[in-house]
Fold this protein.
Amino acid sequence: MSKALERLRRLAGKASADYRMIQPGDHLLLGVSGGKDSLVLLNVLCAIKAKSPFPFTLTAATFDPGFPGFGAGETAKYCESLGVEHHIIPFDMPALLKEKGNPESPCVLCSRMRRGCLYTLARKLGCNKLVLGQHMDDVVISFLISLSRGEGLTTMGPNVPSEDGTLRVIRPLIYARESLVAEAAAGLDFPARGECQYKEYLSENGVRAYFKDLLETMEQRIPDIRSHILHSLSDVRPEYLLDKRFLSLP
């Protein structure tokens, strides 16, 4: 195991302990897109499972949107090579987008369909937790987006109820920077899975891409800003904010 992957295992273990993510008897469904984040998390969870003092079950699933060149078959083989049961969820996203008028950026719709399909599969398999591969950068960027849009002081929670309330959604990589995930991925032989046909558009026009670039710029002035923001999210002081529900007003 590489040093980067071992460090990720320790960080994920700490996050799991801090937020009670993985507990005895859990049946986890890991959403594996085939990208570096989810495949690195797959390896991390396998390492945690091998050393865990208590039993839990790990199953993986890939939402295949049906875009040209996107195939989940190699991802399935990779999961199975690690001894992890894998399920492919086929979906005709191009047909749905055509029905909706072919929006330029279909990410919100695609994300909603993907999450709904994963919830359905989790219930079918008897899983009690859905595991997602978002890392520290994703958490911080989501917070900045919500903050700038006036959507409240919120972000991707480490252990939260699913939208339909049937299971928990956990994110073991919240303490890990994307750069560390990328370092670990470089030392692993991941299969090709194709790219989203909207990737170039999103990299140039997507709001997450904008805030990712902004975060890089901010770090030039404020080193380790990601960890600082994450710490602030863990130290909420509502009496010094503006929500009247938490203020003792005269």
In short: The mean pLDDT is 92. The beta strands are 27-31, 57-64, 85-90, 129-131, 159-161, 168-170. The chain has ten helices and six strands.
